[in-house]
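Lab channel / #folding
Pinned by the channel admin:
"Please post every new chain as: sequence first, then the structure tokens as a reply. Keep commentary short and put observations after the output so the thread stays searchable."

First post following the new format, from NK:
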Amino acid sequence: MKKILLLSSFFLFMTAFSLVLLLSLKENRNIRDLFSEKVHFTRSTTDTFHTWNDQRWEVRERFKLGRGYLLSQQIEHTPGSVKIKLNHQTADGGEIRTRNTFQYGQFEAAIKVAHAPGSITGFFLYAPPDLHHEIDIEIFNEPESKALFTIYQDGRVAKQQEYTLPFDPTEEFHDYRMDILPEETRFLIDGKVVQSWEGNFSSSPMQLMINSWYPSWLDIQGPALSATVINKVSYKQMKKPTGMEKE
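Reply from TO:
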């Protein structure tokens, strides 16, 4: 009798597991996400830029990067979006960044990148010094494009991988996401995991940043035909394990 009960329980478990797996595939979800849902996050902060929140965001005033500068005048806010304009003649771009810092969490942005070959759009976390604390998604600002995922740690490139985009990122908005956890870092595009690395790659709180600029390792190929547009950014931090929260 016990053997029959055990076999029945095992059969019910396998049936339930198969059903969950089939549903996850139907919804185009990565099975790893199902098990990562045990990770607890703080309530999501979402900014759709209907107004500019000066307590949450700041604009880089002037900073030398690549072939030109990141300048405040290259940032334009209109209700519902932030534009980062590019100037191919001066090679100037712009950058916005959060005032708060984050170590572990989930970070996502809806971005339509500029049509400006020779430049890139970055969605990333960073803390000085250079090459020590940085986790990047960089999209090449051109119709036939690719994304570059990079993790900098301890003064060097710890991980890097290119991914060919199956769409034109200059035409429509797409969702770019980073899940930064103590045991793994994942990169997702439109909800699909496209790159992941196991290990702890975050050792310091970092600012969340979005920029468009002209790297010195790319050749400028004409005028920028459009700006990078951001219409949503959301983020939530990983909660500390039970017992570690402050009273």
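NK: The chain has two domains: 1-34, 39-237.
TO: also worth noting, The domain at 39-237 is CATH 2.60.120.200 (Jelly Rolls).
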